[in-house]
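User: Some background: our group keeps a shared notebook of sequences we're curious about, and every so often someone picks one and asks for a predicted structure to add to the entry. Today it's my turn. The entry only has the sequence so far, pasted here. Could you supply the structure so I can complete it?
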Amino acid sequence: MVERARMRAAANELRPALADYDRALSFVVDPLPEYYLERAELAVRLGDRDVAIQGLDEGQKRLGVIVTLQSRAVELELERKNYDAALRRLETITERANRRELWLEKKGMILRQAGRNAEATAAFQASAQAIAKLPARLQTTPIMEGLKVRLQTALKELAANVAPAPTNRQAQNKSAQD
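Assistant: Of course. Here's the predicted structure to add to the notebook entry:
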């Protein structure tokens, strides 16, 4: 039945393909995570992100927290600008991860999108600290070097855009000038 769903999806028969995935997933004893991803993509193509997210959640209830399913759900939440839901989902990934530096960067990016710059700064700093705790041979891999550059750039941009809160003395001086 999954093969028929795939063929229908390829033929742009989206609703029948989605129905085939629903039936297949109700019968398959040990479904693969990719079945849930494929079904979610069909729902997205049909313009229904809610159904896509519900399907990914169904997969995680059945299979447990699967990074690929949860990552796609994070992306869908971001497309809906549902930052808090995206952050909650990201946390389920981060808390299980052996290596957290990339997930902390993602958290910082989401917080930045949400306009929560102080929290974004803290997440980017936590990512940099996670890198610093890695063995030297891992800190210098191309991926980590790229991450370090991205983190430095993000932190500089946030520092330039976020003015610190005025101190009491600055606030008093401003009131005296007004």
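Suggested note for the entry: The longest helix spans residues 142-161. The domain at 1-96 is CATH 1.25.40.10 (Serine Threonine Protein Phosphatase 5, Tetratricopeptide repeat).
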